[in-house]
Amino acid sequence: MGAQLNGQPASALPIIHLLSSGGFYGAERMLLDHCLATPGQHQVLFLDASPALIARFRDAGVDCRGCASLNELLQYLHQRRNERPLINTHNFKGLLFGWVGATLLRLPLVITQHGFTPRSRKQKFYTWLSLQLCRTASVDRVVCVAESIAALCRHASVRSEKLQVIPNGLPTASTSFTHVTDRQHWLAGYVGRLSSEKGPDLFLDALIPLCHQHPRLQAVMLGDGPERGALMARVKAAGLQERITLPGYQTDMRPWWTRLDALVISSRTEGTPMILLEAMQAGVPVVAFGVGGIPDVLQDHHNGLLAEPTDSTALARQIETLLDQPQLVRTLTDNARRTQLDRYDLSALAERWSQLYVRTAQEARA
């Protein structure tokens, strides 16, 4: 890495990440990989997280700790103020706490916008306040993981010179996946939190009719969340509990990549989903709604299949395309692997992050 900070290498720059988290999902996966790949003295302060999640980061080699309150955070930042650490926030609570700390102690502040889910009144307020805080002088950079998120920021009058789009990326795969072909069954997978913004209900809107039409089609919903009970009730009412299963949250996706015939992303909102990139790397074809940053990654019938947002009938048609045209799978997966490697490789993206961190710290010290 060629970036330098006042004559010191980028690896010497202290970076404090702030994150409130309910589990190991896309943003958490991105942050863990990011800390391991990007030069800097990274530390993650979990504002709200389970001991298991903190242990997962610590076991991977990331310096991390819990932080129970804003007052505790301010005390900690005050102790480290002479180091001039850079703060990088990763969700609303992290942004709010980080903004207060950076403002009071005059520390450089980078906001990572992973995406917005403004469906409830509370979420809409959080989105509005997040965008307003991004406009303030305390925020030095706003990094968006997709162009669609940057467009929302521009619409909210966040200055263009603050904004940068750096999509999520994956490290080089440590193992290759050999798909297990089962001629009797064809397995479609949903992977994600079972909550409204991820569209598990829209997944069932597409899969229930398809399962009735195609006897060999099966589906699995990997994840947990508040809609689990309602989803299970729908599957039971459709008489498909043997063919649409909900095994719960998975800590390791590797066994599933060898079994899935397609990943179906039925989200209402997205940034650049990590699970999309993982499927592309693993050679599993993707059928998805064209929301958020997904159309930035996938071109229909080139490296994936796209449907109009929230149109479950169109989503079902695209899944049926894969069922009816098995010869298309090789074309999609080969192109998807190339796309992931060429445009969403973590090592190249980590260099862009390193340069952004160093430039932000230098400007703050000028």
Detailed description of the structure:
The chain is of the alpha/beta class and 366 residues long. It has two domains: 189 residues, Rossmann fold (3-Layer(aba) Sandwich), CATH 3.40.50; 158 residues, Glycogen Phosphorylase B (Rossmann fold), CATH 3.40.50. 44% of the residues lie in helices and 18% in strands. The strands form three sheets. Strands 5-4-3-6-7-8-9 form a seven-stranded parallel beta sheet, with helices on both faces. Strands 12-11-10-13-14-15 form a six-stranded parallel beta sheet, with helices on both faces. Strands 1-2 form a two-stranded antiparallel sheet. Helix 10 links the parallel strand 13 and strand 14. 44% of the residues are buried.
Mean pLDDT value:
94
**CATH architectural grouping of the largest domain:** 3-Layer(aba) Sandwich
Work out the oligomeric state of the chains in this entry: single chain
Alpha-beta classification: alpha/beta
* Distance separating the two termini: 22 Å
| Rg over alpha carbons | 21 Å
Shape: elongated
Largest sheet: 7 strands, parallel
Strand content: 15-25%
Order of helices and strands: EEEHEHEHEHEHEHEEHEHEHEHEHEHHH
What name does the CATH topology of the largest domain carry? Rossmann fold
Helix content: 40-55%
DSSP E strands, number: 15
The low-pLDDT segments are none
Q: Taking strands numbered 1, 2, ... along the chain, how are they ordered across the largest sheet?
A: 5-4-3-6-7-8-9
Report the CATH C-level class of the largest domain. Alpha Beta
- List the domain count as a whole number: 2
